[in-house]
Design a protein that fits this description.
Layout (H helix, E strand, L loop, with lengths): L3 H13 L7 H8 L17 E5 L7 E6 L7 E5 L6 E5 L5 E8 L8 E8 L7 E7 L9 E8 L7 E4 L1 E6 L7 E6 L6 E5 L6 E5 L8 E3 L1 E6 L11 E4 L5 E5 L4 E5 L6 H4 L3 E5 L7 E8 L7 E8 L5 E5 L3
Parallel strand pairs: 5-9, 10-14
Antiparallel strand pairs: 1-22, 2-3, 3-4, 4-5, 6-7, 7-8, 8-10, 11-12, 12-13, 13-15, 16-17, 17-18, 18-19, 20-21, 21-22
Length: about 325
């Protein structure tokens, strides 16, 4: 989102202040990212490696989600000011299909993230969910998710979406992160805050003919409160890890045995490898080909055509 430039500048100015030295925990995390113990996936991540570039049609890439139906394919989209479309791409950035969406909110959309999960909790069919939750000035008491069944074929098409409306329980929030809880199919959002990594809200009872009420689950803070403004998130297929992308870093929340977000939020938050990118707003785990319910890597994207797409694998 464009407001991110101001937030990023403020963060950089704070970090550049010579009178403030990084604390020991922060310095240790930068030198050697803490290993993940007792949870599925990588114990230690390697360094980010470039695997492709952001295509021209995704010059304002704001979300990434791995496809359920099409191995090796990712769904992505632009944010506000662009046509309401989703794109099927490879990790290299090659565009495989463009899907134009109809039936979104009459007042326009500001889609900030994307996730793939059951169309409704417990349903086998997979849907794409787009978080129409951008609110720069925090004035809207309601926000929306857009839902459509994941296309069975990778071809240019025009498809309708359902609009799922929810209300914030406290105040309007700017929000750029959407996740789907493995197993339950419950959807949740993470707000974009200037003083933390965000507030987590579950979204029970979503349906096209009603306004659901968001339920606050907890808050996220970096160690030493050293980072803010979460711009993207992804839940691991195990439910025991969650990635958080900010403009400057990547964090992973870990909790062995967690099956619900409420439990995961009580876990350890550790910094993990992330490249330096301009306006980074997209991240997703990569399902393992041999074990779709696991993941040992993640993919990171950013705004601006030609910016590199990075993959982080096990060390």
């Amino acid at each position: 989102m464009r407001r991110g430039y101001a937030g990023l500048l403020a963060t950089l100015l704070l970090c550049a202040c010579p009178a403030k030295k990084p604390d020991a925990a922060r310095a240790e995390a930068v030198v050697r990212y803490p290993p993940a113990e007792g949870v599925p996936g990588c114990r230690l991540y390697g360094e980010p490696r470039s695997v492709g570039a952001v295509p021209l049609v995704l010059a304002e890439m704001s979300g990434l989600a791995a496809s359920v139906q099409h191995p090796g394919v990712f769904w992505s989209h632009n944010d506000s000011g662009n046509a309401l479309q989703v794109f099927a791409i490879e990790a290299s950035g090659k565009v495989l299909a463009t899907v134009t969406l109809t039936g979104g909110p009459a007042g326009g959309s500001d889609v900030e993230d994307i996730a793939v999960g059951p169309c409704t909790p417990g349903e086998a069919r997979a849907c794409l969910f787009l978080a129409d939750t951008g609110d720069n000035f925090e004035r809207q008491p309601r926000a929306h998710l857009l839902r459509l069944p994941e296309p069975e074929r990778l071809a240019d098409d025009t498809l309708p979406v359902d609009t799922l409306t929810f209300a914030w329980p406290d105040r309007p929030h700017d929000c750029e992160s959407l996740v789907v809880e493995p197993g339950s199919g419950r959807l949740a959002v993470i707000t974009k805050e200037r003083d933390s990594l965000g507030e987590v809200f579950a979204l029970p009872g979503l349906a096209p003919d009603r306004v659901a009420q968001a339920v606050h689950l907890g808050s996220l803070r970096a160690p030493g409160n050293a980072d803010f403004l979460t711009t993207a998130a992804a839940l691991h297929p195990s439910g025991q890890r969650m990635l958080l992308r900010t403009y400057t870093r990547v964090w992973e929340l870990r909790r062995p045995g967690a099956t619900r977000l409420e439990a995961l939020l009580l876990g350890q938050l550790a910094e993990v490898p992330g490249p330096s990118q301009a306006q980074s707003e997209a991240i997703t785990y990569l399902p393992d080909e041999g074990s779709p319910d696991d993941s040992h890597a993640y993919l990171i994207g950013s705004e601006f055509a030609g910016q590199r797409l990075y993959q982080v694998d096990c060390r």
